[in-house]
Amino acid sequence: MKNVSSAVIILFAATSSENPGKLKKDHDTIRVKDLKVSVPFYRDILGLEQIDNAGLGDHIKWFKLGNEVQVHLVESDIVVEKNKGVHSAFNTQNLTKFMEFLKAKNIAFENGDGEKNTFTDRPDGVRQIYFQDPDGYWIEVNDNKLP
C-alpha cells in the first residue's frame, strides 16, 4: 500500500507541473460598498486603466493592469471579511517612489508586522508594503523582479 500512495504522489506532481490548461491570471473581483469612492482609488492611486465592462451595468467597473490582468469592482451591500493574509499583490519597479506617493496622498502603509511607514525586507531581497483600499481590502505592493 505504501508504494501505491507514492506512485500517486509522483503522478500528481508530474501532471500538475505540466499545467495542462496553461492557466494564466485573468481577473480578480472585489465587492465594494461605493463605486464613487473605489473607482478613483483604483484609477488614481493604483494607476489601473478603466476599461469597458462588456455591458454588465453601472454597478460593475473593470480595470486592467499593464499585463492585461483585470480587476473587477462590483458595488454590493455584501460585507466581506478582510484579513492581511488575504490580499491582492501588485508590483512596482520603484517601491521607494511609490511609498513617497502614498505619503503625499495621506495613505497609510505598513510592513508585514504592522510597523507604519516602512517595508518588509524579505530574505530573497524583495521589499513589500501593505495598505488598505477604501473598503478595507489589503493590498501588497512589492519590488519583485518579474519576467
TrEMBL record:
Source taxon at top rank: Bacteria
Pfam families for this protein: Glyoxalase
Residues in VOC domain copies: 24-144
Protein name from the UniProt record: VOC family protein
Organism the protein comes from: Salegentibacter maritimus
Organism phylogeny: Bacteria, Pseudomonadati, Bacteroidota, Flavobacteriia, Flavobacteriales
